[in-house]
Amino acid sequence: MISAFFIYNQKGEVLISRLYRQDLKRSVADIFRIQVISNTDVRSPIITLGSTSFFHVHHENLYIVAVTKCNANAALVFEFCYRLVIIGKAYFGKLDEEAVKNNFVLIYELLDEILDFGYPQNSETETLKMYITTEGVKSQRAVKEDSSKITIQATGATSWRRSDIKYRKNEAFIDVIESVNLLMSTILRSDVSGQIMMRAYLSGTPECKFGLNDKLLLEKDASHRGSSQRRTNAVEIDDCQFHQCVKLGKFDSDRTISFVPPDGEFELMRYRTTENVNLPFRVHPVVNEIGKSRVEYRITVKANFSPKLYANNVVIRIPTPLNTANINTRVTAGKAKYVPAENSIVWKLPRFQGQSEVTLSGEAELSSMTVKKAWSRPPISMDFQVLMFTSSGLLVRFLKVFEKSEYTSVKWVRYMTKAGNYQIR
Amino acid sequence: MSDFRVTKPKFFATTKKGENYELRADLNSEYRDRRKDAIKKVIANMTVGKDVSGLFPDVLKNMQTEDLEQKKLVYLYLMNYAKTQPELVILAVNTFVKDTDDTNPLIRALAIRTMGCIRDDNPYVRKTAAICVAKLYELNPELAIENGFVAVLQDLVSDANPMVVANAVTALAEINETSTTKDIFIINPSTLSKLLVALNECTEWGRIAILTALGDYRPADSKEAEHIVERVIPQFQHVNGSVVLSAIKVIMIYMRIIKNDEMIRQLVRKMAPPLVTLLASAPEVQYVALRNINLILQKRSDILQNEMRVFFCKYNDPPYVKLEKLEIMIKLANDKNVDQLLSELKEYASEVDVDFVRKSVRAIGQCAIKIDEASERCVNVLLDLINTKVNYVVQEAIIVIKDIFRKYPNKYEGIIPALCQNLDALDEPEAKASLIWIIGEYAERIENADELIVTFLDTFRDENSQPQVTQNVVQRVLQIATSECDNPDIRDRAYVYWRLLSTDPQAAKAVVLSDKPVISIEGNTLNGPLLEELISNISSLASVYHKPPETFLGRGRFGADAVQRRAIEEQEEASRESPIQAQVKTNIENLLDLDFNDNSTPNSNTPPPPPATSSKSTNATANVDDLLDLFDNSSISNNNPSTPPQSSSTNHQNNGIANDLVSLF
User: For the Clathrin/coatomer adaptor adaptin-like N-terminal domain, which residue ranges apply (chain B) (predicted)?
Assistant: First the structure.
C-alpha cells in the first residue's frame, strides 16, 4: 500500500518524511518536487513515474503526498490524506506549515499510529487523543492508568467510546446544518447537502434512536399501521451516510437510525436531497454589456423564507470585467464595495429579514484594451446563514436515549441553512 | 486541545557548523530535557535529508527510557538507519526484548513492530502483530512460514476482535500476492461468515480490506453471491467514500454471478445514489469516482439515466474534474436531456480555460453524432459559437463540424459560407485540414472553391504535414510536393496520387471517392475483456488510468527498484536532450498525461491504441497499413514522426481529402 508519506511546504521543502516500506528511498521526495511542485502544467492529482505513483492533496500552504508502488486503492489514499488533514485540525486547530513545523514530533507519532506498513489503522481523532497527546505530562497519566483499557477499546466493536463516562446532567445537542447548492442559468439545478452534528454528554453506554421526517420511513410506518397519515411534511432523502457508530445493517433493513454515540462532538449523519428544495434567496440579475466601455448591473435579491426569520452575514459577489476602471453602485440596503483583487463587487448585508427584497444598481466603466477578448462572465455567488430554517424541510422528530441506569436526558435541536455553492449565471 | 503553537524550540532552524558535534554532546547530556530536544533535532535533520547516521550509538543510548514519546522517536531513527548499520542494531536488541515484556501494551506493540512476534492477549498488540507478519514475510518469506507465523495469521482471520480480523486479512492478502503459490489466503465458508460479521464492526479502513478480500472471492453460486451482496449493501451508507467505492466494486463483480434479474435491477437502482453522493467529496476523490463511474457506465449504461444534472460542471471545479464530467455527460446524453446539455455546453464554451472550452465544443459535436434528432440543434449551437469569433472556439467548432458533415452528408451544407468567412482566422493544422476537406467535399456547390483552396496553397510549404496532403490545384501541388517537400511521407504519397491519376483516372476516382466508413463515438468505449478487468479493479489506480495494472507497475515487487532506477535515469537523460524529445519521453514514461485525448474524439475504425507501445512502432505499422489501405479503399492514414501522435481525425480526414483531389477533375 502506501510506501511513503511526505508533507511539503509551498516551496517544495520536505517538512515530514516517513517511509513505511523498503521499496523506496527518501530521495523520491525530490522527484515529486521536480515533477509536480515546480511543474505548473500538472493537472492531475495522481502521477505515475516509472512504477512509482504519487497522490497529492493541496491543503493551506502544504502538499500532502502519499507514494505507492502498487496498484493502490486510489480512493482510499485520498480519503486517508484528507483524514490526516482532519486529524491535524483536531490537534492543532489548523494544519499549515507553521503547525507542522511546530508539532513535527507529534505528527511523526500520529503517522506511526495511523499507518502501519502503509495500511491505515485507527484514525478516529477521539480515539487517538486518548493515547497520543501533545505533551508528555498528559500521556504519562493516560499511559500508566488505563492504557490497557484504551487499547482494548481502540480496537473493539465500540472503539469510539469509553465505558466509564459520567455526567451529572445528561444532555445531547443536535445541530442540523444544511448547505444549499444552486446553479441557476437557463436551467435550474439545486440540491441540499446536510449534516447532522451531535454533541453528546451522556453517561454510561447509551443506546440512542434517532428519527427524522424521512419520507420512506414515514410511509413504511403508515402502511404498517394501516392509517392514512398525512405525510405532506415528509422529506425525500436521496442518499445518506452515517458515522461509524450507526448500525448500518439496521438502517438498511428498516431505516431506523440507532447507535451508541461517541463522547462529545461528532458528525452523526450526512444526507443529500434534490426534491422540493426551498431556495432561501431568489436572485434576478440583469447584466448588460453596453458597447466596449460599460457594463450595467441591476441585481435584485429576495428572501424567500418566513418574515419571522432572518439571514446573517449575507455576502453577494458580483463579478466585474478584468479591465474595470471604475464602479458606481447604489444599494437599497447593506454596503457594496468594489474589490479589484477579486474582480468583483462585494455586497454585504449583515442582517436580511425574511420576505424582504433588496436591489443593487450600478455600472462599471471599462478601460480600453488592445486585445479584444470576450469577458467570460463568471457566475454571481452568494454566501449566507439562515437560522432555524432548513432548505430541505428536514425536521428531527425524536431522539430517544436508553441506558441501563434509566436516567433522563435533555435534548436540544438547532437548525441552520447556509450557502454551499450558490451561483447564478 | 486548542493551541499548541506556543513557544517551542525551532527544530528546523538553520544549521551551524559542526552541528553533529553539538548534537552528540546534547545526546549525552545529563539533563533529560536536553537529551530529548537533541533527539528531536536529529529527527528533524533526518527529515530534511541530512545524514545523521554518525550519531547512531549516541541516539541508541537514549532508547532505554520511560518516556513514550522519546522511545517512539528513537525507534523512528533506528528503523531508518537499521539497514546501513546492522552491527550496531544488535546493541539495541536487548532493549527490544526488554520492551516486549513491558507491562505497557503500547510499548509491547511498538517493540513488536520492530521485531515481529505474535501471540498476545491484548487485541491492540495482535492487530499490530498481524501486519508485522507481512513485514517479516517481505524480509524473509521462509522464516515467516517455517516459524508458523503465516499459519497463525490464518487463524487470526477468525479472531474475536474485528480490527485484528481486518489486519489479518490485509496481511494475508499482501502475502498471497507476493507468494509464488498464491494459496496463502483462501476464503472458506467459515472465514467468510467471520469476515461478514467483522465488516460491520471494524474501522473504515478495515472494511475496505474485507471488501477487497470479498471482491477477490468467487461465490459458489448465485445464491451465495446474493447473500453476500445483501451484507455489503449497507456499506453504501458509510461516510468514507473509499468504503462506498469498495462496496460498489464487490457488487459490480458479483452481478456477473447473480442470476436473479429482479435482484440485479434492485442493485442497479441502489447503486445510483451513493455514486452521486461521491460527487460531493473532495475534488481528488471526485476524480477517482468519476473515472470509475465512466467504467461503470460502460458496463451498465442504465445506472444514472436520470442524473445528468449532477454532472454539470461548477465554475470552481478543478480542470481535471471538469474534463471527466464532460466525458460522462456525453455518455449520459439522450434525446430527452440533450437540450439541457447543449445549453450547459454552450456556457462552458465561454469560460477561460482553453482546454476545457475546446473539449466542450468537441462534446457538442459528439452529441450531434450520437443523437440524430439533436444534430440540427447542435449545429446551430456551433454556429452561434463560430459567431463569437473567439479564435480557438472557431477552430475547434470547424473541426467538429467536419465530423458532423461526415455523419450526415448533404444535410447542413447551408452553413458552409459561414464557415468560409473564418478562413483567415484558422492557424491550426487540424482546423485548416477540416475546412479544406469540407470545401473539397462540396466543391461542386461552392462557386469559388478553387479560389479558396488557392489561399491555402500559398502557405503550403510552411505547413506541417496535416493539411499538406490535402491540396487541390493538383498538378501544382504535386509538383511542389514531390520536388520541394522535405517530408518523405508526403513525397511518397504525392507520387502515388500522381501515378494513379496519370495512368488511370477512373481507378483514382474509385480510390479516393469511395464510401467512407461510418462515423460514431463508440471509440470512447473499452473492449470487453479490458473493461471486465478494470471493473475488477474499481477504485484502484488501474481504474483511474483505464489501463491494466501491468502497464504501469514493475514486474513483481522485487523488480520494482530496478524499474524505478531506470525510470529516474531516463528522466534525467531526457531532460538533458532537446526539450521536444524530453517531452516525448516523458509522455511514454509518464502516465500522468492520462490521455485525456486518447479516445475522446469520434474515431471510426482505429481500435483504442494499445497501451504502452512506443509511438515509433505504431508509426511503422500505420505506415504499412497506409499503403495497404490505399488499395483497400477503406481508409488512408497519414502517420509520420512529425505529426502529433495519431490525432484521431486524420483517418477520415485524409480520406475526404483524397475525395477532393479527384472532385476537381
Answer: 17-504
